[in-house]
Write a structure and sequence with these properties.
6 strands; 3 helices
């Protein structure tokens, strides 16, 4: 999954480099100003990365399409999506409600308290 995560972060404008013969990953952030990717973020079957990136792309000003394998589209995301929607985040679902693939209509993250169950595994 880390390859999917790094590829997606790169598309969002995060710079990083491997050091110490690939033992250390040095990440240089972008001050919370992520760029809008030119193409959809394809997450394969990476459940953990999909949950992290679904939250993160809400910080992108513009529309970000998040896709993945057919199996990823069957995995539970609704708890996260609902929690984000309750805090003002906007989604357009391209197949099944609450599941990948979807478009995130970002513009910042309003913040506040988010309640989400840690019992669901994606």
């Amino acid at each position: 999954e880390y390859g999917v995560m790094l590829n997606s972060l790169h598309k969002l404008g995060v710079h990083f480099e491997w050091e110490e013969d690939g033992k250390v990953l040095s990440v240089n952030g972008c001050g919370g100003k992520f760029k809008q990717p030119l193409k959809p973020l394809f997450l394969g079957n990476a459940g953990t990365a999909s949950r992290f990136l679904t939250t993160m792309v809400n910080l992108v000003h513009g529309v970000v399409t998040v896709t993945g394998s057919e199996r990823l589209g069957e995995r539970p995301m609704e708890d996260l999506v609902v929690a984000l929607q309750e805090n003002g985040c906007k989604f357009k679902f391209l197949k099944k409600e609450g599941c990948i693939p979807f478009e995130v209509h970002g513009g910042g993250f309003p913040g506040g308290k988010i309640n989400i169950s840690a019992k669901v595994s994606s």
